[in-house]
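Record type: ASSEMBLY
Status: queued
Input:
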Amino acid sequence: SAVISQKPSRDICQRGTSLTIQCQVDSQVTMMFWYRQQPGQSLTLIATANQGSEATYESGFVIDKFPISRPNLTFSTLTVSNMSPEDSSIYLCSVEGGTDTQYFGPGTRLTVL
Amino acid sequence: GENVEQHPSTLSVQEGDSAVIKCTYSDSASNYFPWYKQELGKRPQLIIDIRSNVGEKKDQRIAVTLNKTAKHFSLHITETQPEDSAVYFCAASIPAAGNKLTFGGGTRVLVKP
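Status: finished
Output:
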């Protein structure tokens, strides 16, 4: 399976600021996704990061709050904008590794004060 | 959209006993059902998956069954070991429609030695 890395691994941010999370894969992948895992909860899909076009957002998530870039087939970023304490979560990228399987990055643990 | 329900939310078993986790899904078009294991502070790890053209799949001590008519699928872990203690998530997707995973709420499994 692909090797997936995320930066930063964790951060503590002040409310009202923004944080950009990077996801890097060691091989070209067609599908990349961003998920949120709130404390003690399950995973929720934020958006599908499309290479060369705008991301596709799920209900409840908007581009102004979670802008996503996908400049090539190995890299994507998720920005959490104008943060509030409710944005404190683990943010995970995933990639499709062939045969429909998805593999997750190590996650970015975000705390907003 | 798809809704996945998972039961139980917590499960405590004696080492060596079996553990069963059940999930139901709402969208009859879903045809890919992965299971993930997430240890504390770690990323979700794919442990087994099943597609709708298969009724059962086994991998050593782990098995998954699927009943398409009833729209439910289950994870079976036999001869449980302390290292099986983790949170387990089921998920459902339609690979041909973007392969967006919808997760169940998770089951916290504790294997007591």
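Annotation: The radius of gyration of chain A is 13 Å.
Annotation: Chain A touches chain B at residues 31, 33, 35, 41-45, 48, 56, 58-59, 92, 94, 96, 100-107 (CB under 8 Å).
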